[in-house]
Structure formats: structure tokens, C-alpha cells
Amino acid sequence: MLNVLIAKNAGFCFGVKKAVDIALSAVEGGECYMLGNIIHNATVVNELKRRGLKTVTAISELPDATAKEQRPKVIIRSHGAAKSEYDEIAKKGYDIIDATCPFVSKIHDIVKTHYEAGEHIVIIGAKDHPEVQATAGWCDNTASVICGEDDLDSLCKFERLCFVCQTTFDGKKFNELSEKIRKMGLKTVEIFDTICYTTYEHQKEAALLAAKCDLILVVGDKKSSNTNKLFDICRTVNNNTYFVESVDELKKIKFPLSGDIGIVAGASTPTESIMEVKTYMGQEFGEASNEEFINAINNETVAGYREGKAVKGTILSADADGIRVNIGGKNDGFIDKDEVCEDGEYKPEDYPVGSEILAIVIKKRDDAIGCVLLSKRRADLMRKTDEAVDQIRNGETFEMTVKKDIKGGLTGSLGTYRVFVPASQIRLKFVPDLKKFVGKTLRLRALDIDDIGHKIVASQRVILQEEKDEKDKRAEIFWENVKPNVVVSGEVKRISPYGAFVSVDGIDCLAHVDHLSYSHIESPDEVLEIGKTYDFLVLKTDREKQRVSLGYRELQPHPFDKCMEKHPVGSVITGKVISVLPYGAFVEIEPGVEGLVHVSEAAASYVKDINEVLHPGDEVKVKVLAYDEAHRKTTLSIKACLEDAKPTVSKPVSKKVEESDVYSEKSDNNVLASLLKNVNESADDEKKD
């Protein structure tokens, strides 16, 4: 006999179900159009067409509706649409009903935000897939679309990159690509794992089922991207994998006489298609399905009542004392009011006559009332437990609060299951004192699950080891790529008086206060904000000491360049005296830009001691005489401003020009006079010779 196993997550995912429900509701309310097929499944599309939904492949096919009394509707399918398409549809006079998958909408938000921030968008996925095309429409269709390592070289020309991924892309391939991207040493890269978690679950479950079964049936539309991915994954594991679009195709498959047949289905495959395949298998081969096996365990209709057994019944009555239930035997069941709810208050009106209820047998028969005693509360707890345990069977992490320490380890519970954590599995190193963990919450992974004894052996160490390995791996990549003069992106984690600590790919780096601003600052938080991400220049690295020095101001425009543009030579500026030295004074004319007023330019007349005319903090008017761009130096003059301010007075030209009118050799602070004096003395000496 054949045993048919149907994947737990087969069929519609959350996003597709939501879109189909929206479409079914919308077609009942008047004229309605769909921009493209709602999902890649002909059965669903044809049903919607039968109900009156009109499909167009482009907005240009929509008739103008601006003059219509009742505005028709356009449904945006689960794959989403470009931003410009929303505007175009509205201009044509249509109401928009957005059935975009929430996970796809999240990608659109990421793309829009990072595109507006100046980053180049890269979409990992199939270029002709409608979801990818819609996503590209949120960055003015400037995105690069890649699907393999061969496409990566073309991205080296971009300074800042933001990667997103098609929701139905192969998870394993995405991880491989991400690793390759991180090793490329691109300047600024952000990678967002936007694969839908349902896709991950479908793919993981499909691989497990393919390894277990003798033959695999992949049910769905061959145009569906996610269904094709499932087929590829199953085919890699099991050569006896068949893609099934309709029941007719099953007739062409040569099934074994016995063994396990696995059925998986894409996220766009309706339940009806899966059940058609299952029904065909039952009619042709009389298989025992996993669903029938589960029902047999639960014993929904048996007359024997074993304590601890789950039974399903029909409510006969509900009053203040409890609920009476028909459980299919000669005795009814009874749920006492205290055994109805785990949380909240029991209200009889919440349990109408005729509705079904699941409960656990807690006593075969109570002679006082002549009923089998049941507990809905325990059934709810067991159901939650079963769901929780099912989620951890494939290595998923779960949390547990430690109840007590015993010889050899720690214990706690997961629903009705007792959890034991051996001492060797708590930390990476030996733990001498187990008592300190009592009351603490551990992150665990199941090593062994005993469903009969309701016991789980779990480990926190395996999680910590994986995290350490991942951290070491990331650190290796970090030190290979982070070198001096490389630009990196980092988040400011904390601030101290001497600088800001910045996390770059999880590694702590220091941006010293001296490298945050060209102007003087009292504290780093005048420039950087905790929690925000900035670009930094790597100044120095020391792998042995695990130190990285970053610079922020080095990536900012230098204030000297702005000053040259704002105040060309000849400009008059009001500045502040910063310091006074014997040879001159330094005056700040722009934040971070100081110029030298030589002692000879400090006043209109001879200055013996510059401290007599200028003091730190004085505000003075200065004229820009020159810029030394190579050394970023500025020459200023106070005297020039005073001379410019003098009124012009006409004087008769004297034939005799006194030497002192040209320059004064006695002027100790006149640089030009000193130079000319030296020249004249040399000339006199030559004449004497």
C-alpha cells in the first residue's frame, strides 16, 4: 500500500491567500480590473474571470473612467506594481485595491528609502519576474538585476549599494551570493534578506520530504517561480520527482506498488488542486494518508475512553457549571467550568449548541454525573505544545525558563514536554555552578525529542558555537576587506569624551574626536548621533590589538575650500582673534579656517608689540590678501581695511621723493623694507670692492 505524505506548508501562503480573498471580494462590488494575473495559477485566474474580473496586461489597456459616475476598481496583484503605475491608474479615474503581498511591500519601502539616500539598488532575482519588475519601479527603474555570481563584477563601479532579494528566490543561492558580495570589498554595501519566511519553510520542508519519500509530486502552475524552485530542490534530492499541473498528468506516472509518496505545492497552488491529487491517489491506489493516520491517533470517534486521549465532540449544552458534549459513545462527556479556559473567564454563551469542541479525557467515567470527564483547557495546552514541538523538530531555536538544577544539568518545560539541558550543553566552557541559571531563560535547540515519554534533550551550546563561528567568519571577512583609505558604513553605538564607538559589521571601531570635525567641538555628539549610521574613512588598523581608527571629517568638504569660494582674495571679513604670537595673530574667519595677520599688517602704523593692539577674543575686520591652497594657509590684513577706509585726499606731487616714503629701513616690522635694505647694502659693498 502507498503512504501519501502531504507537506505541512503546502499551498497558499499568507500573501497569496490575502490577495485572492481581496480579489474575490472586489469582483462582487461592480466593475473591476486586474493589472496582470493575480498569481501564477491558471485555476485561480480562470475562476476570477468567470466571476467577472477583467484582466489587462498594461495600464494603457484600461478605458478612461474619469467621466464615470461610479469609479471602477483596479486590483494591484500580489507581485505589486511600480510607483508610477499607482499614479497612472488614479489619473485614469480608478479606485485602487492594493493586494500586494506585505513582504513585497516591505521590499518597496526599502528600495525607495535607500534609492532616495543615493544608493544604487541591486535586486537579486529573475529579471522578467513581475515582482522584480514592480520592485525596480520604486527606484525609477535604475536597479541592477542579478541572479548569479557572473553578474557581480558589473557592480564594482558603484560607491554605495543596497541589495534586496525576490521573495521567492532560492534561499541557499541567496546565502552563497551574499557571502560572495561581502568578500568583494565594495565600499558601502547593505544586504537585506527579503526572501519570504514561508518560502524558506516550503523549500526546507520540500528537501526533507524528498529525502524521505520514494517519489515526489510537485503540484502547481509551471509558470509559478516559487513552485519551480520547489521542483528544482526536490529533483536535486530525489530523481523520482514529477511536476503536476493537473490530475491528468498523474496517469502518465508509473507509481510503485508500495512506499511513501510525498506531495509538495507552491505558495500559489490552491487547496483544491492539492486535494484533487490526493483524492486521485486514494481512488487509484487506496493509500493510507498522513491525515488519516493523524485522525486515527487522535481517535476522534472511538467509543473507548483512555485517560489522556484527545476526543472531538459536539456541544449538547453549556451552562454555568460547564459544557455537556456528545463524544459518540453511550456516555456523554462533561467539561467542568474550571477545565474550559486556560486564560480568561468562562462564558457559556461562547459555546453554542451544535458546535464542535476538542478535549482531553481526564477520567473515564464519573458515576455521580454519569459522564466522561473532559478538559478543554488541557487540550488547548496540548495543541499549543504540539505546535511548539513541531516547530522545533527541524532545528528551530526555542526558549525555556530554567525551573531547577539537577545532577548533570538543568530542567524546564515546553508545554507538556519536559526539557533537559545537560551541563555540557549550557555554555561553550564548563559551568561549575548550575544554580545561577535557575530562573534564567535559555535559547535552545532540540537534540532529541521523545514523543512517547514527552521528553526533550536540548542544547544552548550548539547555538553559541554557531554564533561564535559566524562571528569569527565575519571578523575574518572584516579584516580582509577593511584597510586604510577604505570607506565603510557604521552605526554609532556609544559616545565618550574622546570619541565615538562605531559598529562596522559587528566590529567595534573608534572615531576619535580629533577626526570628527574640522572645527573645535566639545563633544562627539555635536556631530554624530547614537543609533544612526554614517560613512567613515578607515585611517588605521591593528588586527593584533583588534583596533580600527575611523575618520568622519575626512569625508566632509574641507572648510578651507568653502572659504576660498565664499571669500575670494580682496574680500573684507569680520573675524575673531584666536591667538596672538610675537610675529602675528591668527584670526578665525570661518568655522575651522584661520588666517595669519602678520605684525606688519596689524595696524596702520608701526607696531612694536602686537599684544598692545590685538587680544584673543577680539573681533576685527580683515582683508584677504592671499590663499596658499597647497598648504591651506590664508594671509590677512587689518591695515588694508584701515587704508581702504581712509578718505582720498589730493596732494601736490613733490619732485623730491624721500626714501622714507617708499620704505623705512627703521621699520623693524616692515618685511619689504628689510629685504630692500639688504639689497642696497650688498650694492654698496660691491662698489667699495
Uncertain regions: pLDDT < 50 for 5+ in a row?
287-303, 653-677
Strand content: 25-35%
> What's the number of extended β-strand segments?
33
The N- and C-terminal alpha carbons lie at a distance of: 129 Å
* Order of adjacent strands in the largest pleated sheet: 18-22-23-21-20-19
Enumerate how many helices there are, as a single number.
16
Class from helix and strand fractions: alpha/beta
Helix content percent band: 25-40%
Radius of gyration: 40 Å
> Which overall shape is indicated by the principal axes computed on the Cα atoms?
elongated
Mean pLDDT: 83
Q: How would a textbook summarize the main sheet?
A: 6 strands, mixed
Give an overview in words.
- By secondary structure, this protein is of the alpha/beta class.
- Strand 22 (441-450) and strand 23 (455-459) form a beta hairpin.
- Helix 4 runs parallel beside helix 5 and helix 7 (197-212) packs parallel to helix 8.
- The protein is elongated and about 125 Å long.
Topology of this protein?
Elements: E1 2-6, H1 14-26, E2 32-35, H2 42-50, E3 54-56, E4 73-76, H3 83-91, E5 95-98, H4 102-116, E6 120-124, H5 130-136, E7 144-146, E8 160-165, H6 171-182, E9 188-191, H7 197-212, E10 215-219, H8 225-237, E11 241-244, E12 259-265, H9 271-285, H10 290-298, E13 310-319, E14 322-326, E15 333-336, E16 356-366, E17 371-375, H11 376-392, E18 398-401, E19 404-406, E20 409-414, E21 417-422, E22 441-450, E23 455-459, H12 461-481, E24 487-496, E25 499-504, E26 507-512, E27 533-542, E28 547-551, H13 559-566, E29 572-581, E30 584-590, E31 593-598, E32 619-628, E33 633-637, H14 639-645, H15 659-662, H16 671-688
Helix pairs in contact: 4-5, 7-8
